[in-house]
Amino acid sequence: MSDSQPAGSPSPVVLDVWCELQCPDCHAALDDVRALRARYGDRLEIRLRHFPLEKHKYAFAAAQAAEEAVEQGQGWPYIEAVLARTAELGDRGEAVLLDVARELGLDAEEFDTALIDGRHILIVDADQAEGKAIGVTGTPTYVIGGERLDGGKSQEGLRARIEEIADRLLAEA
Questions:
Q1: Residue 3 has pLDDT above 50, yes or no
Q2: Contact call for residues 68 and 34 (beta carbons, < 8 A)
Q3: Residue 140, preceding bond cis, omega within 30 degrees?
Q4: Percent of the chain whose predicted confidence (pLDDT) is above 70
């Protein structure tokens, strides 16, 4: 899932954020993502890539629900709202995903149907397979300019490193 970009104007720099929506570390990383979005605007395309971890029971469903939110035009607001409720998601499960959809004015019945019929499974599976292929083992993990940065161990210094790489890539563009 990526920030919406106007057709015909691709961003010169892409930041892939390998994330899972039941991960407390990914919730903590939101401040960095927001700061990067504020600093670079449309010069940096931030793409959420799904990497649900087996230790989180509802992460795979949350990834599918996030793709349904993209379909309904509210991808990032939905993702941020679910990440703000990681503990509740662990306790209450898929009901939280539907509650968040309703709170954002989305079609919760369509979310429920999407979770049942699995229409977004291929997107989630493809992201996860690509992540494994490039060495992602935990979340959040960032990839920018071909460099993988693991945020699951520590977020400290990562935003500065991402900014350093983005500034270099933008200067080269």
A1: no
A2: no
A3: yes
A4: 92
Rounded-to-integer distance, Cα 36 and Cα 41, Å: 8
Distance from the first to the final alpha carbon of the chain: 23
Could you tell me which residues come within 8 angstroms of residue 142 by beta carbon, excluding any fewer than 6 positions away? 15, 16, 17, 18, 148, 149, 151, 158, 162
DSSP string, 103-149: HTT--HHHHHHHHHHTTTHHHHHHHHHHHHHTT--SSSEEEETTEEE
Contact indicator for 2, 50 with CB cutoff of 8 Å: no
pLDDT one-digit tens code per residue, 76-91: 999 999 999 999 999 9
C-alpha span between 45 and 121 (Å, rounded): 23
Q: Copy the structure tokens of residue 97.
A: 């995903």
